[in-house]
Task: structure prediction
Amino acid sequence: NFKETADAIEYRQAAFGLIAYNFGDMGAMLKGKKPFDAAVFSSRADNVAALSKLPHEGFIDGSDKGDTEALAKIWQDKADFDSKMTAFQDNAAALAIAAKTSNENNIKQAFANTGKSCKGCHDVYKKD
Ligand code: ASC
Result:
């Protein structure tokens, strides 16, 4: 367990940073900013699916205080926050599966669904 709330904040931020790096590279490929490489894309999708399970553990009680963009609303509406986090994990898992096919429409749809999960939570629970 975390010794201090600062450690929990650092933990979830590290996970989000790794997610953003991997997801961002996938977006660059889908938007044609770099060549699409199916093996790299799939590996990154696997990374995001695994990493998506990590941040939630860092949202411990009291960790709205500190060097964080997390809003106190997370802990006021914890059940909704938890379900949004689960939906993100489900979407990331579906994206990892889609990435193993060569169905471009499915891949793009699964990527969009995952991005909507990121944004949907940020819009409500992250400082802007
Ligand atoms: C990213 C990133 C996010 C999401 C979000 C999707 O690459 O860093 O927070 O995608 O912008 O809408």
